[in-house]
Specification:
Blueprint: H1 2-8, H2 10-23, H3 26-29, H4 40-59, H5 68-107, E1 114-115, E2 122-123, H6 125-140, H7 143-157, H8 166-178, H9 180-208, H10 214-255
Antiparallel strand pairs: 1-2
Helix pairs in contact: 2-4, 2-5, 5-6, 5-7, 5-8, 5-9, 5-10, 6-10, 7-10, 8-10, 9-10
Length: about 260
């Protein structure tokens, strides 16, 4: 290790560590980058490759301190910036999963769960459908390239040796977190309204014809209506996710400011 540092140079090695610290949160929180479908070793290699590519941009003839405490302070700062940026994008996909959870509870799919290939955890059917659609849209619109470009843009806003405004970072994270529930309702609104109307209609039928077994008829009908409206609304959900991703990256960059 010491021989490698002497060959590359202490300044370059310290700069590479700081750049890697800012990039690493992408592979913990950000969609696609943190997916369990990508092996941990592959994610590590991708993080190192991105750090190698961004290090010359971030360094730009800057002298990085090599003292332990100064380097540790800068590394913590880099982690905070990376977490703030990745969290703003992760919130968009969290709202997609919450929208699916709403519908799974209403339709009745929450009684059965399957292993989600993206997160590696158990989740109901509609949550997985929304999650997979979100990933497909993310790839189709080049969301991975947007995130890398946005992360590179953070070095113009907060250079490697500068410190961000903590209040701005916290405010941006708070605004992103509070918007999860509203975004989830907007995504699930078409199916949510249709299922609610269906429940109300079968409630009226049960009062008019008490001898009818509403539960035996209502559950399959509710599932069919939910799937039909879901299929019809997916194109609009795709456009909404694309706009939300752009807005999330823009808001993340706006919250990253020099102290």
């Amino acid at each position: 290790m010491n021989g490698l540092i002497q060959t590359v140079g202490a300044n370059q090695a310290a700069g590479f560590i700081l750049v890697l610290a800012r990039i690493s949160p992408l592979f913990v929180l950000a969609p696609i980058f943190s997916s369990r479908m990508m092996p941990a070793r592959a994610r590590g290699v991708a993080a190192v490759a991105l750090a190698v590519g961004m290090a010359p941009i971030a360094m730009s003839n800057r002298k990085v301190p090599t003292e332990v405490f100064a380097l540790a302070e800068l590394a913590v700062k880099e982690l905070l910036i990376g977490l703030a940026f990745a969290f703003a994008v992760a919130v968009v996909f969290a709202s997609v999963n919450i929208a699916g959870a709403f519908l799974d509870t209403l339709v009745g799919f929450s009684f059965g769960s399957l292993v989600d290939p993206i997160t590696g955890t158990q989740s109901p059917v509609l949550s997985q459908i929304y999650g997979l659609v979100g990933v497909l849209i993310f790839i189709a619109i080049g969301g991975d390239a947007w995130m890398i470009q946005g992360l590179a843009k953070t070095y113009e806003l907060v250079p490697l040796l500068s410190f961000p405004s903590i209040s701005a970072l916290v405010g941006g994270a708070n605004a992103a977190f509070t918007g999860i529930f509203v975004s989830a309702l907007q995504i699930a609104a078409p199916v949510l309204i249709a299922v609610t109307i269906t429940d109300a209609a079968f409630g009226i039928v049960s009062r008019v014809a008490p001898q009818m077994n509403v539960f035996a008829v209502g559950l399959p009908a509710k599932i069919i209506i939910a799937l039909m409206i879901l299929g019809a609304s997916l194109p609009f959900v795709g456009g909404y996710l694309a706009d939300s991703l752009q807005a999330a990256i823009s808001d993340a960059l706006n919250s990253i400011q020099v102290r």
